Amino acid sequence: MCVLLCSLTFYNVLLFGRETNIPLKTANGTLTQGILNGGFETGTLTPWRTGGDHLARVHEGSEYVTHSGSYGCIISVYGGVHYNDAWIEQDLRYAVIVSENITSFTCWRKINSANVRVTITYWDDTTTHQNFNAPPQWTMCNITEITPGKRLKKVRFETISDPIAVGGIDDIYMNGTFTLSEDLPGIPGYPIGIILTMTISILVIIYYQKFRKIKSN
Predict the structure, then answer these.
(1) Entry pTM
(2) Helices H, strands E: what count in the chain?
(3) Distance (Å, rounded) from C-alpha 194 to C-alpha 72?
(4) pLDDT given for residue 15 in this prediction
(5) Which of these, 47, 28, 81, 67, lies nearest to 184 by C-alpha position?
(6) Regarding predicted confidence, which is higher, 137 or 39?
């Protein structure tokens, strides 16, 4: 009975207390990847946001925007008269990501005649920036401008000069050991999971007691 109730609790919290693509807590309560959907292999930008002169978008099967896998992100897109700058940004709230716990932070880009800027915002709302030139072939960015001793709040990737061709960014990975945060996206769902768990648990207990009573008679 205890095993059943624990299973129901676990299932409901996971089902109603998280958003799509949020990694689940491991056995020791840590995660090894700080970026969600960094390879865009879900076929969507979620949970990235986009803005700028024109919106970035996920594209399938193009060597210009896909470094590996099936999808990549067009971060330099055609705006009608010229190619406009765009940015993508992701909140880092589902895990406690402190700079000292990051072992590597990289991405791949292929954008002709445009620079890529990586902006990290910390929980005290200070920021660091790092610019990378973007040659016409796929090249890795090694992001090292990270302030020691601070927790990361969000990261942004953007083009900062008007390029002359479509360009992409892909395979954004932040490796390290990070503790799962209590500030999970989708946290309002937790009460729903708890209520459902309690309701189901009560019904299971009532049914079990009735079954035992019928069986004893």
Answers:
(1) 0.70
(2) 2, 12
(3) 38
(4) 36
(5) 47
(6) 39
